[in-house]
């Protein structure tokens, strides 16, 4: 559980109601279809200076290029297994133009290096803990054994090395790796312990989607900084600086052709509503990989932990004014279109990859998420109980197909929203609040958003060779840090 020392590490110095709300955040956010606002219809605000969080620091936006996280190269390849070595270390990084920011990093980079894996080809990653504190690593969306899942209590001591085995026996998908140290996961991820892990498969390759340098992962998250550029862990509503691959309001040069963008919301607590000023975005994938068919969207809604893949066609826009990716009406990334080099041979076919058959469910369960606000500090609950690493909350048979009803049971005077995340397997959303799923619910998911008092029904099959304990929890990491987690045990 979260003790006073760990609560102080988050910057909460009092245990009264005001401090509680500053830590948890008290502004619910709605998905499209629930308080839908729509995009701004093409208006392009271009501020003369960017602002940073709740400080007085200003900078000229769109003067720095958005980096693409470098692809990590194997340190060794033997017997069909690629082995990587990645240090976890403190470093100073460039986020705000002209300022240096102390951070926790994988390999010295604020967005850690990308690991590109192939389905069916195993990977080993040796993480070397060069910090002066405990840490661990969770492969979010990965189908891995319990010993390699990054359980919140399975930690890497300072100075130690931990090798994680990732078999990659799953569909091609955009995954990510991040810290999952119980009680400190929010602080560690906020300060930079996050990176992409991309799995490619043969079915995806046959589709001829944009690839190579035209396949670009983009990590979106928000933050607050002080006047010197240091990260401030304060109220979530004060994290008003949006970062794209670790840069505040950068630009990104693109050729006049199609690009595949893999969008990840790595914020601790935030729901992005993204648009390109009326320019269509072709959605092709969700958390667990490609959709059955592409869908044209003018707005994307992505909650913490979720991923969405889109294709944007910049051809024919060479002479237009720059294009922007907006959050609402706030431009967060500028695209500068230049002449294409060579013919664009990529395509987006009308059919992508079918979803696996659901099968017949033999077990139904209800899982609720809520807070006990009478406790000091407040306690996160799953089915009325806080996380206990020594307690198994439910058992699941290998191969079983189950339906879970996920309920946001917070009925406090200031109700909270919660994104639900399941380890080990992906699921499909069957319904939302008794009606059909929203467009954001399509495809294979491992994270789904619940607004205050919301309910979703999900179905999944535990086709896995693994047994052991796995987590399910709220993916607002400040909430999981306060105990809004539970664990299931997979049994033969």
Outline the fold blueprint.
Elements: H1 4-9, H2 17-24, E1 50-51, E2 58-59, E3 76-78, E4 81-93, E5 101-106, E6 112-118, E7 123-129, E8 138-140, E9 161-166, E10 173-178, H3 185-190, E11 194-200, H4 202-205, E12 215-223, E13 241-244, E14 247-248, E15 251-255, E16 258-265, E17 271-275, E18 281-286, E19 289-297, E20 300-303, E21 307-313, E22 323-327, E23 330-338, E24 363-372, E25 379-382, E26 394-397, E27 401-408, E28 418-422, E29 428-432, E30 447-450, E31 455-461, E32 468-474, H5 477-481, E33 485-491
Parallel strand pairs: 4-7, 6-11, 12-16, 15-23, 24-27, 26-33
Antiparallel strand pairs: 1-2, 3-4, 4-5, 7-9, 8-10, 10-11, 12-13, 13-14, 16-21, 17-20, 17-22, 18-19, 18-21, 22-23, 24-25, 27-31, 28-30, 28-32, 29-31, 32-33
How would you explain this protein's 3D organization?
With 492 residues, the protein is mainly beta. The chain has three domains: 4-29 and 356-491, Cupredoxins -  blue copper proteins (Immunoglobulin-like, Sandwich); 50-62 and 208-338, Cupredoxins -  blue copper proteins (Immunoglobulin-like), CATH 2.60.40; 76-202, Immunoglobulin-like, CATH 2.60.40. It has helices at residues 4-9, 17-24, 185-190, 202-205, 477-481; strands at residues 50-51, 58-59, 76-78, 81-93, 101-106, 112-118, 123-129, 138-140, 161-166, 173-178, 194-200, 215-223, 241-244, 247-248, 251-255, 258-265, 271-275, 281-286, 289-297, 300-303, 307-313, 323-327, 330-338, 363-372, 379-382, 394-397, 401-408, 418-422, 428-432, 447-450, 455-461, 468-474, 485-491. InterPro entries: Cu-oxidase-like_N (IPR011707), Cu-oxidase_2nd (IPR001117), Cu-oxidase_C (IPR011706), Cu-oxidase_fam (IPR045087), Cu_oxidase_Cu_BS (IPR002355), Cupredoxin (IPR008972).
């Amino acid at each position: 559980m979260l003790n006073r020392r760990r609560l102080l590490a988050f910057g909460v110095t009092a245990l009264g109601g005001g401090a509680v709300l500053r830590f948890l955040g008290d502004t619910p956010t709605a998905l499209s279809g629930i308080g839908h606002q729509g995009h701004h219809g093409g208006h392009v605000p271009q501020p003369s200076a960017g602002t940073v969080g709740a400080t007085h620091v200003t900078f000229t936006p769109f003067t720095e290029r958005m980096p693409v996280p470098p692809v990590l190269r194997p340190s060794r390849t033997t017997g069909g297994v690629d082995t990587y070595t990645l240090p976890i270390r403190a470093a100073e990084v460039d986020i705000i133009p002209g300022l240096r920011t102390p951070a926790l990093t994988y390999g010295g980079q604020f967005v850690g290096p990308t690991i590109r894996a192939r389905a069916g080809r195993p990977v080993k990653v040796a993480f070397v803990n060069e910090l002066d504190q405990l840490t661990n690593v969770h492969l979010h969306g990965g189908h891995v054994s319990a010993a390699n899942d990054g359980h919140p209590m399975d930690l890497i001591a300072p100075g130690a090395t931990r090798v994680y085995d990732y078999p990659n026996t799953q569909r091609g998908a955009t995954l990510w790796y991040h810290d999952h140290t119980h009680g400190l996961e929010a602080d560690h991820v906020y300060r930079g312990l996050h990176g992409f892990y991309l799995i490619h498969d043969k079915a995806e390759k046959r589709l001829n989607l944009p690839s190579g340098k035209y396949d670009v992962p983009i990590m979106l998250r928000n933050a607050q900084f002080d006047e010197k550029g240091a990260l401030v862990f304060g109220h979530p509503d004060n994290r008003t600086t949006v970062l794209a691959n670790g840069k505040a309001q950068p630009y990104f040069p693109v050729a006049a052709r199609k690009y595949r963008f893999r969008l990840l919301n790595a914020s601790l607590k935030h729901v992005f509503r993204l648009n390109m000023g009326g320019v269509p975005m072709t959605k092709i994938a969700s958390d667990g990989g490609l959709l059955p068919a592409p869908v044209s969207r003018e707005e994307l809604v992505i909650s913490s932990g979720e991923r969405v893949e889109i294709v944007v066609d910049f051809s024919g826009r060479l002479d237009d004014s720059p294009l922007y990716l907006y959050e609402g009406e706030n431009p967060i990334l500028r695209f500068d279109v230049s002449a294409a080099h060579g013919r664009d041979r990529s395509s987006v076919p009308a059919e992508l990859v079918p979803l696996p058959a659901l099968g017949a469910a033999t077990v139904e369960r209800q899982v609720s998420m809520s807070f006990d606000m009478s406790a000091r500090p407040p306690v996160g609950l799953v089915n009325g109980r806080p996380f206990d690493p020594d307690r198994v909350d439910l058992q699941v048979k290998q191969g079983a197909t189950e339906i879970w009803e996920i309920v946001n049971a917070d009925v406090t005077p200031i109700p909270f929203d919660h994104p639900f995340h399941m380890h080990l397997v992906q699921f499909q959303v069957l319904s939302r609040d008794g009606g059909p799923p929203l467009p954001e619910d399509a495809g294979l998911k491992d994270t789904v958003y619940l607004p205050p008092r919301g309910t979703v029904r999900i179905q999944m099959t535990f086709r896995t060779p693994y047994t052991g304990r796995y987590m399910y929890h709220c993916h607002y990491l400040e909430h999981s840090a306060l105990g809004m987690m539970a664990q299931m045990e997979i049994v033969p």
